[in-house]
Amino acid sequence: MKIAVLKEAAAGERRVSATPETVKKFVGLGAEVSVEAGAGADASIADQAYADAGATVGARTATLKDADIVLGVQGPDPANLAGAKPGAWIVAGLNPFGERARVDAYASAGFEALAMEFMPRITRAQSMDILSSQSNLSGYKAVLDAAAEYGRAFPMMMTAAGTVSAAKVFVMGVGVAGLQAIATARRLGAQVSATDVRAATKEQILSLGAKPIFVEAMKGIEGEGTGGYATEMSDEYKAAQAELVSSHIAKQDIVITTALIPGRPAPRLISDAQIATMKPGSVIVDLAVEAGGNVEGAVAGEIVTIHGVKIVGHRNVPSRLAADSSALFARNLFNFLSAFWDKEQGKPVLDEEIGNAIRLTQGGKVVNERLLG
Ligand code: NAD
């Protein structure tokens, strides 16, 4: 059983899908691990550290030769996988909706593509969930990025020269990233408020010492669909939410938006007119910018200024903390493969629940119902 760890090819991707820690654990399971030279460089992991953990380190062709499992952070280019065994597993964040052509190409090449972001949200799969591990770090980094762009301090400071008032931070979307953003902004001393469409988040916001800002309950609206994800809201709800946000947002210094709906464009939460009501020098960080953006005018990969407000739209925020995000991503992959490791066969064998959820391609075809649907 040979596991190949590739150097990420996507522009701006600094993460790596295995660390010396996980290499050592895979070797402990009896696997042979081969790492492409330089794979960990951007995450501050030297080739020698992989070698010391028991991997062979070499060129891409040697790494891929006869590989049974290819690990990646993002999906590798299907044209660049020559040498891997027929039927080899490609295990990565495959962005199945955004990279559909690539999924088709994995199928035609005979690979079994396993999309880690389709991991079901069930208790036993929590330690395998790349969305959670990466979103958590994104929420943290979003607040630091906001602080770096903000020309004022976060905490209240009483000095001999007078008082600096605390920054007001508003977090929109209280999933994994939003919760970490609230906690981080609180640690920095900001006055924090937050909102979500899922009523269950109210308690979580309060427990972090922040103020919930919620549209009053509307009949029939729970906001929560399958797997704890948000559902698309009615027009009536959206109008009430926009009104509430308008009056609140004008008083905020920092807004962090994190709202996502799986398989659909991100909901628009802040309009140009609402930005115009904010104070000059305020900062908005749009963590959903790559999914279409929560904020009107946000540009992926750029910091733009609109009505004197800075709108931060960094791409691939987890990659901006590459050492930690790689460590957690690599553990997610190890936790997944080791949980299914069949000692007699010396390889992982998936069960139906998780296998059917994450398997995109098999036997030359696309087989995942979310893609066929
Ligand atoms: P997400 O990244 O899909 O979305 C971020 C947040 O945006 C969510 O809280 C969502 O409700 C919110 N949102 C969507 N539309 C909105 C709108 N119009 N206005 C305001 N907010 C909006 O969410 P996530 O971080 O993946 O977490 C969703 C839930 O799933 C959380 O409760 C989380 O704890 C849970 N979860 C469970 C598991 C597990 O059991 N294995 C793993 C991860 C997350």
Automatic annotation (TrEMBL):
It is an enzyme of class 7 (translocase). It catalyses: NAD(+) + NADPH + H(+)(in) = NADH + NADP(+) + H(+)(out). Keywords: NAD, NADP, Nucleotide-binding, Oxidoreductase, Translocase. SUPFAM superfamilies: Formate/glycerate dehydrogenase catalytic domain-like (SSF52283), NAD(P)-binding Rossmann-fold domains (SSF51735). InterPro entries: Ala_DH/PNT_CS2, AlaDH/PNT_N, AlaDH/PNT_NAD(H)-bd, NAD(P)-bd_dom_sf. GO terms for biological process: NADPH regeneration. One of its GO terms (molecular function) is NADP binding. Residues 147-313 form the Alanine dehydrogenase/pyridine nucleotide transhydrogenase NAD(H)-binding domain. The keyword Signal does not apply. GO terms for cellular component: plasma membrane. It holds the Pfam family AlaDh_PNT_C. Gene3D superfamilies: NAD(P)-binding Rossmann-like Domain (3.40.50.720). Belongs to the AlaDH/PNT family. PANTHER family: NAD(P) TRANSHYDROGENASE, PROTON-TRANSLOCATING NAD(P)(+) TRANSHYDROGENASE. This is proton-translocating NAD(P)(+) transhydrogenase. It comes from Sphingomonas kyeonggiensis.
